[in-house]
Amino acid sequence: MKLFVGVDNGLNGGIVVIDENQKILHKWIMPVIKIKNKNEFDIQSIVYIFKEIIEYDTLTFVCLEHAHVRPISGKRACFTTGFCFGLIQGILEGLNISYEIVNPKVWQKDIFQGTVSDTKNASIVFCQRKWPDVDWTKSERSKKIHDGITDAACMALYCYRQNR
Fold first, then answer.
1. Model confidence at 77, in pLDDT bands (50, 70, 90)?
2. What is the CATH number of the domain that holds 152?
């Protein structure tokens, strides 16, 4: 069995695993912990997630979204996104998991089949249609769909299409 993993790095990101049948096997919101009223990445939990993925003892393909600095983002947001990008790369390298770095525009063009102005909303709509039985909210109590998980699911599907 092959596993395809999409990683939306960022404090509001996610990690999603699909199988050869495009079934969602696992989905995680990017683990964070609160330190001095700020969210920080829970590095131990992120490592645990990837160790859990490779326990399947199967061929695993990972697509990691390339981090970009946006002019409208603040210094902290830019640093945090870049930090997570490097952190995930380090974890994947340390666990000897092969991965591909994917530009957001590349996977979005493939998945959304054209130009879409609101990519966050597009990933939500796409995932609700593709996997209607999956709960895309952050928690059982939450009503809002978590676009970090839907983006990661779209990247996992892109990974599947590139590596099947």
1. low
2. 3.30.420.10
